[in-house]
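Q: How would the structure tokens look for this protein?
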Amino acid sequence: MSNPEIYSLNSRKVAEATDEWLIKRGVTKMAIAELVHFLQKDYFPDLTPEDCMIHVDAVLSKREVQNAVLTGIQLDILAEEGKLMAPLQDMIKHDESLYGCDEILALSIVNVYGSIGFTNFGYVDKLKPGILVRLNDKKDGEIHTFLDDIVGAIAASAASRIAHRKQAEREGFTQPPLD
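A: Here is the predicted structure in token form.
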């Protein structure tokens, strides 16, 4: 067991690193919010991408999500640099269809937000709308095997959060079921 007096990571630094690495990899919060809007606009016609941003921020504020983002981005970068051992290097470099660890890491994010998040994740993972088109394009030499699924999971989780909050509002609850 670790001694908390010896090791302590500042949560603010983890959150800042998450935001910085998303931007370094070309992912803005607005691009994620646009995915959320894509997922929820048919159910809530008055919803705007700006409204969705609040929920993206809430999802990204969770440490479990930050951990997944940082882990996935680091694995993608190591694959770009050719620093993984074979055959893992090739599996991540080529986004091998039978390699599912990228989806499993993303599902750790969605798991926090329930079944609506799971179905939304499957939907965006299949369609690859918005920023997911660029993240899946292998032509620029960047590898986003993990990041594309993570971005989809963040959007799916934010969409789930919206759905739960809207239902709570309809039912007159002041405290929504999911945070």
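The chain has a mean pLDDT of 94.

The chain is about 65% helix and 0% strand.

Upvote if useful.
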